[in-house]
Amino acid sequence: MQNPYSVTELTAYIRRLFDDDLHLQGVWVEGEVSNFRRAPSGHWYFTLKDDQAQLKCVMWRSSADRQDYTPADGEAVQAWGRVSVYDAQGVYQLYAELLRPVGLGDLFRQFTELKARLEAEGLFDPARKRPLPAFPRLIGVVTSSEAAAFQDIQNVLRRRFPLAQVILSPTLVQGSDAPAQIAAALERLNAHTQADVILLCRGGGSIEDLWAFNDERVARAIAASRIPVITGVGHETDFTIADFAADLRAPTPSAAAEIATPDRAELAANVQALDETLTSWMQDELECRQRALVVARRALGHLSPAGRVRGLRQRVDDLNARLLAGWRGRSAMWRERLAARAAALQAANPESILARGYAIVSRSEDGRRITAAAGVRPGTGISIQFADGDLKARVEDRESHERYKRTLF
Predict the structure, then answer these.
(1) Do 186 and 200 meet the contact criterion of CB atoms below 8 Å apart?
(2) What is the pLDDT, as a whole number, of residue 127?
(3) Which of 15, 108, 288, 397 could form a disulfide with 85 if both were Cys (CB 3.0 to 4.6 A apart)?
């Protein structure tokens, strides 16, 4: 019995068979490009396929840098190179050294024709795109319940916005039955839920894997949805007809969940910032109002009747003081005048005159004052008033008095 080969030995043996076949060391292969990607190293990896088979291909950077043409998924190309086995994975592949375009592949041609027709109908018109809700309460998800994309979406929603509820409308996301199921899943959410937004998602894959999202039925179901639809199909470089019909395209399912919801950490930071701004504004406004109040109080104080009353009170006090001072001055003046008049009157008082040695002479018969000697005849009875009393007398001529040497009293 022959000793068994190890996997490494058998793989190396098969590789040698490929390497020894001169026909496979320089061969042209024609097919449609699929799953094209450029590695960080600069190498190109892609698949060539037709309707019955597919062939993995690699082009090293040294050859890729010489290319004046970069292929894209769906394009038909002719590749020249050698066929060998990649030992680590046990697969045979074409190590391409030259690529030249042949024309559009069948799938890519279908894609461009459908896109052009729906775009001409206005199905992709930006004017018909619906705005997304800022704070969705219910999020509908259209994807496979078995898909890792659904778990990714849930993880993102729990982290970013756990307030939102999630409802899954399950569907196939790959295969010939998928387009009808995707359209039906969208219709269910529209008919039986109050979802605020719908996430239509699936993970990455080849153009064939994503082809259900290039179906006209899916595009029209998205356009007919009353609920905004966000697509997150494949990877960042994958574009489908569903992406153009949707209200917004996200590069991945996780990104779709992020776009659909606010980040609670950002919301908390925004609320904190708004609170600080509001507090600062309120403090500034309060200080401004307080300054205005001080100014208003001052202005009101100038216009206040109380201020005028205080001023008038002081004015009254001043006038009272002036009146009192004037009255006192005038009273003193009148006292002085009165004293002067009293003194003058006292001086003119006959009693005062009498007290100084003068006497008042009057006729005894009628009491009339005698002011001149010439008016008195001898023999007239007179009354002489002194300060301390009166004397009665009679007038005699001087000659008789002196001659007879008589005493009158």
Answers:
(1) yes
(2) 92
(3) 15
